[in-house]
């Protein structure tokens, strides 16, 4: 706006064009980032009951409900005070829209998870 305020009264139209291009870039950036990802997420732990020392696996299912593609994501799973970070690859807007990611839950922390 400063460029427009300086350029318009003095007849410098390139400044006015730069100001309008800057406003257009800011507006386009806002429109690009305003949308939230529409994702459907579910998690299963198999087997349901595990004896001490046995292995379990958690399966994260992430589905892109939007028609636009979604870039790489980082999901965080909580088990009491322990957080597990899971990298989710990009989700296409077209098929395949669903990803299945398996990861080991923390074995040092016992927790009960109500889904």
Features:
single chain; 115 residues; alpha+beta; 3-stranded antiparallel beta sheet; 2 helices; 27% helix; 31% strand; elongated
Describe the structure.
With 115 residues, the chain is an alpha+beta fold. Helices cover 27% and strands 31% of the residues. It has helices at 2-10, 13-34; strands at 39-46, 57-64, 73-79, 82-88, 98-103. Helix 1 packs antiparallel against helix 2. The protein starts with a helix and ends in a 12-residue tail after the last strand.
Mean pLDDT: 79
Structural class category: alpha+beta
Q: What share of residues are in beta strands? A: 25-35%
What's the total number of strands? 5
In short:
By secondary structure, the protein is of the alpha+beta class. Helix content is 27%, strand content 31%.
Produce the secondary structure layout:
Blueprint: H1 2-10, H2 13-34, E1 39-46, E2 57-64, E3 73-79, E4 82-88, E5 98-103
Antiparallel strand pairs: 1-2, 2-5, 3-4
């Amino acid at each position: 706006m400063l460029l427009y305020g300086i350029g318009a009264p003095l007849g410098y139209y390139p400044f006015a064009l730069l100001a309008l291009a800057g406003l257009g870039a800011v507006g386009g950036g806002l429109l690009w980032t305003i949308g939230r990802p529409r994702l459907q997420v579910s998690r299963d732990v198999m087997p349901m009951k595990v004896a001490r020392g046995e292995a379990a696996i958690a399966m994260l299912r992430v589905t892109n409900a939007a028609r636009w593609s979604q870039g790489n994501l980082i999901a965080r799973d909580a088990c009491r005070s322990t957080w597990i970070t899971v990298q989710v690859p990009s989700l296409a807007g077209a098929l395949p829209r669903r990803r299945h990611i398996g990861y080991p839950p923390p074995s040092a922390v016992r927790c009960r998870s109500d889904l």
